[in-house]
Amino acid sequence: MKDYITIIGGGLAGSEAAYQIAKRGIKVKLYEMKPVKFSPAHSNENLAEIVCSNSFKSNLLTNACGLLKEELRKLDSLLIKIADETSVPAGQALAVDREVFSKRVTDEINNNPLIEIIHEEVTNIDEIARQGIVIIATGPLTSEGLTKQISKITGQDKLYFYDAAAPIVEKESIDFNIAFYGDRYSQEKKKEETIEQWHERLEKQDKEEQSYINLPMNKEEYEDFWKELVEAEVVNLHQFEKREIFEGCMPIEIMAKRGIDTLRFGPLKPVGFDDPRTGKRPYALIQLRQDNKEGTIYNIVGFQTNLKFGEQKRIFSKIPGLKNAEFVKYGVMHRNTYINSTKLLDETYNLKNNKNIYFAGQITGVEGYVESISSGLVAALNAISQFEFPLSGRVSNCEK
Fold first, then answer.
1. Which of 53, 61, 167, 348 has its Cβ near the most Cβ atoms within 10 Å?
2. pTM of the model
């Protein structure tokens, strides 16, 4: 048995696992193929890169994800600690400056003397597992070479679905003659105001109230936008017609094709808002969420898309307030890989047919940043237990 634990993948789960193992005085070899090789959705060289939304979901303890985050704080999760420290206004949710977040995680892992980062693609899991314990945390964007190895050791073909990310725009390019700040329902609680009083109050709002920028639409504007969206040109990926799209991250153009009012009951629902220009509830409403600490860029909430970049620019610029929008990043779609965990893994994330192999993160089928971090922590605790006390019991996800 080697005197270290190997981790393959430097995403959220892999980075958390590396920290937890090193914290207990055990050496770690962390394999991360960036910057030698990038997946289709990754773009920077840092660990724990946030690809899709910058939201870690609700902080409320009455919410399952909020409760899980609080448990992770009590368990000294490195990534949740950094998420708290790099947070940006997002109402009751925890959202982060994605660039600062991943840079901070990278610095913490790089500066730990017990963690060795090796920048190369791994395709020899069998060999590594014969020498010691390994945690596979390569996420939903596992490379083709490693995916073949995982299929071999699990005896199953990979499973997959398609996920997407929303575009990001520069705040300075948003038209605030139309756009306004505010969280849902806060406008409905206000007293009768003149437009001048409205804008004066907006200037005094605290950061929590300015978590979102809102873009109201009337019926004509909405129906024109909807028509353009359903007729838009998308990237031609035939697999999308096989129901492989993740329902929780549905591309905006596919959602629109389900009916003219589908978006108004989904990401464009106007409930809880008044248009300050009319004093009435808009027909539809689009929200933008702050994406960096400085508040200079915002992502379009719920606008995951597979539209061609030119179509995104053309159609999203039709949204009132975004006529002259400058896009920092366009939305993209990518394939997510995961294993049949309920059949292949035990309750400790250990592979049933090879006790030296653990899995963690979204490749196990968990959905979300917080859930991935949690699985990395749990897999690490069990790997540590096996490393130090090979015959002892381990910690299940329910017992952590």
1. 167
2. 0.70
